[in-house]
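User: Some background: our group keeps a shared notebook of sequences we're curious about, and every so often someone picks one and asks for a predicted structure to add to the entry. Today it's my turn. The entry only has the sequence so far, pasted here. Could you supply the structure so I can complete it?
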Amino acid sequence: MPAPRNRFKQALNEGTTVFGCWLGLADTFSAELIGTTGFDWLVIDGEHAPNDLRSITAQLQVLEASQSHPVVRVPVGETYLIKQILDAGAQTILVPMVDNADQARQLVRDVTYPPSGDRGVGYALTRAARFSQIADYGTTADAEICLLVQVESLRGLENLDDILAIDGIDGVFIGPADLAADMGHMGDLLHADVQHAIMVALKKIAAAGKAPGILSTHDPMTEDAINAGARFVAVGADSLILSHAAQALAAKWKAPKA
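Assistant: Of course. Here's the predicted structure to add to the notebook entry:
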């Protein structure tokens, strides 16, 4: 029996645009809820949400019944962390703060079994291989792993061509918030210079045959990104959805009455 088919990776390879949502509440119940809403993919965030290996694993478990593909963002591109997340059953990994080709090259090795990579061969013990029930996991897993890297700094943009030249990188996500800050426009993702840099980068990624990605909650920016080639597009975050809806509801009923 081979490793499960990665539907997200397949969609990207086919040139399909897939829409996602960030999961930052670090909770299985809310993850399961968002998993019923129809998004193509969901990011379990290990960088800016209070997640650890156990909470990420638990969310992978509840999303198993969902049609939404789980993408795990690790807090940093460390070999041991990626090894643990893959063994927990993640098939798609998003790595933040990738600034150069050397980092990207090592990340490819991190998600790949020997002799081409450094991923530890202990799959018989893991959830990824259904605890040894997927007998062919070791020989088939590499083809179903999807590696996405985040370029979100001026240094990363300068090295983007070199990063795109690395075989094994499936997609490149442009991190708008960090990029805006690095460009001197903290909190102003819509600044003309930031938007120009993002759209140029997305076009370059697409031209290199990789899948471009973005997170945008501003519809005009989202449309521009899709037109520039973005193929995995996050359009919201659970914490923002809850916070904004709650604020609007509170304001509605606490507003002064005429």
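Suggested note for the entry: The first strand starts at residue 18 and ends at 23. Residues 238-254 form the longest helix (17 residues).
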